[in-house]
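Appendix B. Raw example, untouched.
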Amino acid sequence: MESKIKVYAFVGPSGTGKSYRAQLVASENDIHYIIDDGLLIHENDIVAGNSAKKAPTKIETVKKAIFIDEKDRNEMRSALKRIKPEAILILGTSDGMIEKIVDNLNLPKPEKTIYINQVATENEMETARRIRTTEGKHVIPVPTFELKRDFAGYILDPLQIFKYRKNNEPYISEKSIIRPTFSYLGKFTISDTVFRQITEYVAKKVEGIHRVSRVRVENSIGATNIYVEVYVIFGYNIVQVLRDFKERVKKEIERLTTMNVQEVSVVAKGIHMPENK
């Protein structure tokens, strides 16, 4: 089904303003769907995918963006089959990157390639590079409210650009800037004790957890990993209890701290045998 999709490519080096101009390029070519850094975007909505901008390393970012992971690849293929877009604009840093994306998603080769220097001046590209390097700003071509759930722990700034198309029609381009909190707020610290206290509070609310015995916190750029050891009450389904506890810990920490919790690992350290009454 994907083979009927008309594919267009938008190519330019990282940080030169592709995401900033993506909606305008799509509009001028009558394209309503964009693939950018692992996301499938329709107009102002994210309809499928996982943002590569959340990946912990540059290598992982590239893997996400070109759909190396089978789960990401299959999710995007399924979305394209379900939606059946007539045309799609794919953003990439090179022709080779575009080729990898279309191959991984079983899409046809691009009918047309637009290069960043065709729609932006050298001064504009240099300004974009400088902002990326010095301020850590990344643009995602959707409104801020679309990103809040997926970018806990990041500063989200709305960005609205009023432009004109070639036929002089007015055009409003809605975008968002994401920045890890460390690059915007300077240094700040949340004590490991806070994470432990939140975890212990959640444990009291989850049926089947007797107590938390250990909490280890690992902080990295823009993300937090939590390792927890617990004692499970005898008679409860251990796998179900741990799964429920893990999900609730992640949700509660993100809600209270706005940190992006990358992973919560929960280990059943032992079984608590209630005393016979």
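End of appendix B.
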